[in-house]
Design brief:
- This protein is mainly alpha-helical and about 425 residues long.
- Helix content is about 50%, strand content about 5%.
- It has 17 helices and 6 strands.
- It has a 3-stranded antiparallel β-sheet, with no helix packed on it. The chain has a 3-stranded antiparallel β-sheet with strand order 4-5-6.
- The chain binds acetyl coenzyme *A.
Length: about 425
């Protein structure tokens, strides 16, 4: 709370309404409009572009400056000095772990990596070519039915066990979705591997052949998970909070988050970027696609560009671009034709007045798809990888909400349908 207040003066109202102005540790002040309902007034904000939906201590973004902090730490420093699991610990607990806490956390996560065998039968029910995100929505939701021993959302210990289970099992489930998709046997997790190595092992190993996981690729995978770990109140996180606000069990809330992430305006953009690069096909076609992106009558958008909050470079994109260069150099793929198209596209968009004036910078999805392709991950799995990394963010926000006083999320509307009317009998219609 600050000493400042906003005063609302509405035509036709006798009195002005004082609204408190709240300040956070960083970022803009917000006008607390929650008392308006008592005056039978509602605000109108489609897409929540001007609305802070909650108070949170987890992640801060300054979109104008291109800053992303997790619990106060810049994403660039976390990417350089911490692993994905250390970042998970930070998001869940508020502080980075020391060496002993890190070892204990890794051991806890490792001990939860297996999934119940019934999940295999559940997966078998999906069509062989089902999109892995469709399967993920289903299997993560289905996990609600496996853990009756620890599903009391009002018990902090139960909530933490659930967080650990979700973080630990997501790579196993993600790899199982892929194996189902390609028709290969499921690979069990190997507990002597780290989080990212284990994921690559479950993805690319088979019972006949378990190739040694390249440390370069495992590091890139860990970085991918880390850069996707959390991003404040985005569409999927807000979905998880909204679902959770009804008291729903956490697995179904995360399944709702996965569904929200799937769309091409959100997490599905990484798949859409690669599809777009393939569609462009050759550097000589780039101008045509740029023209289409600028055409108001064409629904085509340059995928991987623009962001609701960042009106500057997405800081994750900077880290991702560097990692992308390293991975491609390590794999000898610097001359990859898709990468050449991507680099040229980026140059043009950063200079073109349309993109510059609208502050449409490359976002994290622009580069993540290129790294994933280099690692050998098929396009259909890109958003699943995003979901795997983001699970900690979802569960941290869910836990934060449940740990504090909260209300069921229930927006109102501006009704523009018919006024009340009578139903006519069939022969009068
Ligand atoms: N290509 C061409 N034009 C664009 C693009 C784009 N990628 N993104 C926005 N614009 C234009 C819009 O047409 C609009 O123009 P107008 O002012 O003339 O009407 C203006 O820029 C503002 O765009 P909005 O859609 O109003 O911005 P919003 O904040 O609602 O959308 C979004 C942000 C959805 C990310 C959008 O930029 C987009 O669709 N980008 C492509 C998809 C993408 O990369 N999504 C990933 C987001 S990051 C993430 O989820 C990890």
């Amino acid at each position: 709370m600050t000493d400042k207040k906003a005063v609302l003066n509405i035509d036709g109202f006798d009195t002005e309404i004082d609204l408190p102005v709240l300040s956070g540790t960083l970022g803009q002040d917000v006008i607390d409009v929650s008392s308006l309902t008592a005056n039978n007034i509602f605000t109108f904000d489609p897409g929540f572009t001007s609305t802070a939906s909650c108070e949170s201590k987890i992640t801060f973004i300054d979109g104008a400056k291109g800053v992303l902090l997790h619990r106060g730490y810049p994403i660039e420093e976390l990417a350089e000095k911490a692993s994905y699991l250390e970042t998970c610990y930070l998001l869940l607990n508020g502080e980075l772990p020391d060496a002993a806490q890190k070892a204990e956390f890794e051991s806890i996560i490792t001990s939860h990596t297996m999934v119940n065998r019934s999940i295999e039968q559940f997966l078998a029910g999906f069509r062989h070519d089902a999109h892995p995100m469709a399967i993920m929505c289903g299997v993560v939701g289905a996990m609600s039915s496996f853990y009756h021993d620890s599903i009391d959302i009002n018990d902090p210990t139960h909530r933490m066990i659930t967080a650990h289970r979700l973080i630990a099992k997501m790579p196993t489930l993600a790899a199982m979705c892929y194996k189902h998709y390609v028709g290969q046997p499921y690979m069990y997790p190997k507990n002597d591997m780290n989080y990212a190595e284990n994921f690559l092992h479950m993805m690319f190993g088979t019972p006949c052949d378990m190739p040694k996981v390249s440390p370069v690729l495992a590091n890139a995978m860990d970085l991918l998970f880390l850069l996707h770990a959390d991003h404040e109140q985005n569409a999927s996180t807000s979905t998880v909070r909204l679902a959770g606000s009804s008291g729903a069990n956490p697995f179904s809330c995360i399944a709702a988050g996965i569904a929200a992430l799937w769309g091409p305006s959100h997490g599905g953009a990484n798949q859409a970027v690669l599809e777009m690069l393939n569609e462009i096909g050759d550097e000589k076609h780039i101008d045509k696609f740029i023209k289409r992106a600028k055409d108001k009558d064409d629904s085509f958008r340059l995928m991987g560009f623009g962001h609701r909050v960042y009106k500057n470079f997405d800081p994750r994109a900077r880290v991702m671009k560097k990692a992308c260069d390293d991975v491609l150099a390590e794999l000898g793929l610097e001359d990859d034709p898709l990468l050449r198209i991507a680099t040229r596209l980026e140059q043009i968009a950063l200079e073109d007045d349309y993109f510059v004036s609208k502050k449409l910078y490359p976002n994290v999805d622009f580069y993540s798809g290129i790294i994933m392709k280099a690692i050998g991950i098929p396009t259909e799995m890109f958003t699943v990888i995003f979901a795997t990394g983001r699970t900690v963010g979802w569960v941290a926000h869910w836990n934060e909400m449940i740990s504090n006083p909260y209300k069921i999320g229930r927006p109102r509307q501006l009704y523009t349908g018919p006024s009340q009317r009578s139903v006519q009998a069939m022969d009068e219609r």
